[in-house]
Design a protein that fits this description.
The complex is a heterodimer. Chain A has helices at residues 27-32, 76-82, 121-130, 150-153, 175-182, 200-213; strands at 3-16, 19-25, 38-41, 53-61, 66-72, 89-96, 108-114, 134-141, 158-164, 171-172, 192-197, 217-220, 236-238, 244-246, 253-255. By secondary structure, chain A is of the alpha/beta class. Chain A has a seven-stranded mixed sheet with strand order 10-9-8-7-11-12-15, with helices on both faces. In chain B, the strands form four sheets. Chain B has an eight-stranded parallel β-barrel, surrounded by six helices. Classes of the chains: A alpha/beta, B alpha/beta. Chain A binds chain B through residues 1-4, 42, 47-52, 93, 224, 226-238, 242-244, 249, 263, and chain B through 22-25, 29-30, 32-33, 53-54, 56-60, 62, 64-67, 69, 71, 74, 217-218, 246, 266, 268-273.
Amino acid sequence: MTASMTCKVAAHGQAGPGIFILELKAAALVSAAGPGQFVHLKTADGIDPLWRRPFSIHRVNRRRGTILLSYRRIGRGTSLLARRTAGDTIDLLGPLGRPFDLEGGFTTAVIAAGGLGAAPVPFLLDALRRKGRKAVVLWGVRSKTELYCLDALRGRYTSIHIATEDGTEGFRGRVTDLFGRLASEFASGSGFRGFACGPMPMLKALQPLAAASGFPWQASLEERMACGVGVCQGCVVRMKNRQYRTVCADGPVFDLAELDFHD
Amino acid sequence: MTDLSVRIGGLGLRNPVLTASGTFGYGTEYAGYFDAGLLGGIVTKTVTLEPREGNPMPRLAETPAGMLNSIGLANVGIERFLSEKLPALEGLDTRVVVNVAGNTAEEYAEVTSRAAGHPRVDAIEVNVSCPNVRHGGLAFGTNPSATAEVTAAVRAATSKPVIVKLTPNVTDIAEIARAAEAAGADALSLINTVLGMAIDIGTRRPLIARRTAGLSGPAIKPIAIAKVYQVRQAVKLPLIGIGGIMRWQDAVEFLLAGATAVQTGTLHFLEPDGPVRIVEGLRRYCEERGIASVSELVGGMIEESS
């Protein structure tokens, strides 16, 4: 059951250049939400901007009864959101969408994230650790100042590999190049499951590498949305069978192999 | 206690607020947010004879006080609508209006006869006004004789109330309204979206893949009010006002201009339970002014200047 609710801002701060982490009091969501799901926020009280803005859940804090979101300030909606301070209230719909599938037999998660696509990864890692699964995180950003949530990624069973386009940290290049270099580590194929989150060009570049990896990959998509619940049909993605699926309600998590990026 | 009930061409509604086609799915997607029984009725997404995948992405753009959409009547087709979607509406205690479209008048009639044959369906809304498809839709609704042809075909296919949904993208909407009335419509709903376009000045590309799209939201409300007022002068049929209704005050404005009921659309994307708040606002407005029946407001704008 999803619901619209008014949440109090518990904390809000900058975590990198134009990158913010927003913590919302939302006790009902803590147990209801799964990694990969998102919430749909009203960033303004009136009609400017008109639409809500979708944010994947960055992490939940069970002890504090909060959910954390991370986002980059890029337009009017996120600029208005960035002005909210502790104690303010925000109207929220969620949790929405289908979460990552963590069932079935795998021992190690291979997680490829591009830029702010890393937003749902801490939540995913927390869920994997509770299941006793290991994780290898590959995170690509433009420059090391954008590595805004490294502490939230670190933990037991987890190894982290960084790629920066400008070479200021880790491997110089994109996360897909980094995966290509490390692919031999996963060559046995069995026991692995891939999770990818990031912009469409990254997922498109990753798709053939994932297909060659020998293990299945899920991808979490980013898309502009109006309704967020599958009603307006405005945020669709083409599948290999030529049918469209809504990112908000059928996704945002899809089988990477089924996505058709050639629309 | 104000009586909020209204009648639309033989169809009794608990109150004058319905949800507009394409903004409420097949009626169950928002089930978790509020009880649809609190509304006058729901209008389903457009249903066509065959399933349609709809238009390529991007299909949506946010604009000042509005939005552009070019979904292209994506729908599951009448077969799956009847077998998968309609049964889920059985439990809803509200009026169910099925919105229909087709490539030809015959297709409109066939979808109508199959949908209206189901006991759960209370009325048919005829989409001759979608701006986002090449055939059907707007092509019928911008021409009086084509509007009449489709209306007559639908009329012959059912005895249930027939509501014809009009486009504002015409020179004289009154002429189209009269054609629908003469062809046997029981009511008219207006307006569908206004043809619009937006361009990204960075990439020089249109923001919508199909380039032009339908504009909805508060930006079009004054256009819709004017069209309702014009059509009110031209026909005797009850009207359902649509266009940028975000608050109960907007609904009152449509009633005063001549609408008997209203539909909300873009509102749902911001406030899923918005239509229910509009019903409550209407009730308060009437009660505070001692208005016994909401239908007293219909066409109640005072014309003479003081």
